[in-house]
Write a structure and sequence with these properties.
16 strands, four-stranded antiparallel sheet, about 500 residues, Multidrug efflux transporter AcrB transmembrane fold, alpha+beta, about 20% strand
Length: about 500
């Protein structure tokens, strides 16, 4: 009969060996290394020492707040909203569309009396009007503006729609780090409406098509004679419209008498007749590829770049007007960076001193400070991908530093009795109780911060996001790891004593 196989006893580790083998500590270390890689390993074209995205407070740049030149009209519940919208669209010569069961959006600016009269004439009952647009138009504006600003080669852009209590968006705020005010106003301060018109007789012109018929755009190019221009392609329907307009006006038979005019937000950017070869080609079949010349020298190049941006991104669905603007110089932004680093170091040093004065134990001060620094690094690693760092975000980082130490002190006070760690079973019980206190405290802060995320307060939103992320990283990752470290350090001290 075989002798029973003895089960091999699991080896228990203590001290540093136990710390580095603990799963909670391993996870924290892996995230720390991954965060350092995310911060410092270059993987974007905009790398400048780190991959951190700095807002215009720290990088320098501009912000512009635009006001929508449109109105949202509320009708009575018994109004035929579709019929009213159609009739008003014809009478006001603009786009009017239903956006709710009793609300319509008018894409031009009118006085309240004009809207009241238009609604009555269209067969509806006017209740009220608010300046702004509905949520669908606001989302379209946001996407278009983001596309325009990102075409400048910067990812440091924030576009925030400012919505009132009635759900009507009246303003949009754009923050662009590293972009000067002049360039910002040229790109986002206009609707970006591109139009082609053709000369009929004398100085008269007629509409041919808008920029929504443009399907592809080339980079600005310069001819041998030094003239800058932008080539673009029309869709088949747009090419057919252009051909028909040229034939109807006589531009294919007498091109010199019928200039092709191109406008951007009502300002002429190109005016010239068709070349004889192009006129003959258009007479035979539609031509999809066209070009707009913008002039010579630096001015011509800047106009070509502006035209390219608007052609690529398209026009905003409504007109906009600059309601406010501001800028921060790169020098001032650099100064703010230095001040923020100094503030963070002072805060960390102050925390270390206060912890030492409380416990008089260097073996506790060092793990607390390292845990706090690990938490901040992991938080910065995540921020690389989701959040710009502006002054509000830096304030949130310092706040995370302070609340993190508070929670570590709670945890330390719970698990240490008379300067020593109790037996393992009692230690685990106290650790569980301490973590429950910390989770409850964290939950209240998250609940308090959540409204700042869903509200249209762009600066405070960054503060809330960093705060919540810092709390979650602490509760899920660094606090449990710190609990293990404290246990081993104090148990080792007990053994030596």
């Amino acid at each position: 009969m075989r002798a029973p196989v003895q089960k091999k006893e699991k080896k228990e580790y203590h001290g540093m060996a136990a710390i580095i083998r603990d799963p909670r500590v391993i996870i924290a270390l892996i995230l720390l290394v991954a965060s350092l890689c995310a911060i410092f390993i270059p993987f974007t074209a905009n790398y400048n020492g780190t991959n951190l995205q700095f807002g215009l407070d720290l990088e320098g740049g501009s912000w512009i707040q635009l006001e929508f030149q449109a109105d949202v009209v509320t009708l009575s519940e018994d109004s035929d909203i579709n019929k009213v919208a159609d009739n008003m669209s014809k009478a006001l010569d603009c786009t009017v569309k239903p956006i709710d069961r009793n609300k319509i959006e008018v894409d031009k600016k009118f006085t309240q009396d004009e809207l009241r009269s238009a609604v009555a004439a269209a067969g509806g009952t006017f209740i009220s009007s608010s300046p702004g647009v509905g949520s669908e138009t606001a989302d379209s504006v946001k996407r278009t503006l983001e596309s325009k600003v990102n075409s400048l080669g910067t990812n440091d852009v924030k576009v925030n729609i400012l919505t009132g209590l009635g759900g009507v968006a009246q303003y949009v705020r754009i923050e662009m780090a590293g972009v000067d005010m002049k360039q910002a106003q040229e790109i986002v301060g206009k609707q970006g409406l591109f139009e082609i018109r053709i000369q009929t007789t004398s100085d008269q012109t007629e509409h041919v098509l808008y920029g929504d018929s443009v399907i592809s755009v080339q980079n600005p190019t310069k001819t041998i004679s030094g003239v800058w221009g932008v080539g673009f392609s029309l869709d088949n329907n747009g090419a057919q419209q252009f051909r028909q307009a040229c034939i109807d006006t006589g531009a294919t038979t007498n091109p010199s008498a019928h200039n092709i005019n191109m406008y951007l937000d009502g300002e002429e950017v190109y005016s010239a007749p068709l070349s004889p070869d192009l006129a003959r080609s258009i007479a035979q079949s539609p031509v999809n590829s066209l070009s707009a010349s913008t002039g010579t020298g630096d001015e011509g190049y800047e106009k070509a770049k502006e035209l390219e941006v608007h052609l690529r991104a398209g026009a905003l669905p409504v007109e906009v007007k600059i309601a406010g603007s501001g800028s921060t110089s790169a020098v001032l932004g650099g100064y703010f960076k230095v001040i923020c680093v100094i503030a963070a170091l002072v805060a960390l040093a102050a925390v270390a001193v206060m912890v030492y004065l409380r416990y008089r134990e260097p073996l506790l001060v060092i793990p607390m400070v390292i845990t706090n620094m690990t938490e901040i690094v992991i938080l910065l690693g995540i921020a690389v991908f989701i959040q710009q760092l502006d002054l509000a975000a830096i304030a949130a980082l310092i706040a995370v530093l302070g609340t993190g130490i508070d929670q570590l002190i709670i945890l330390t006070d719970e698990v240490i009795h008379e300067g020593l760690v109790p037996a393992k079973a009692l230690y685990l019980k106290r650790l569980k109780r301490a973590l429950l206190i910390i989770i409850t405290s964290a939950a209240t802060v998250i609940i308090a911060m959540f409204p700042l995320i869903i509200m249209d307060l762009s600066t405070l939103k960054g503060f809330a996001i960093i705060n919540i992320l810092g709390i979650l990283i602490g509760v899920i990752i660094t606090r449990p790891a710190y609990g293990k470290v404290v246990m081993e350090i104090m148990a080792n001290k007990k053994t030596k004593n």
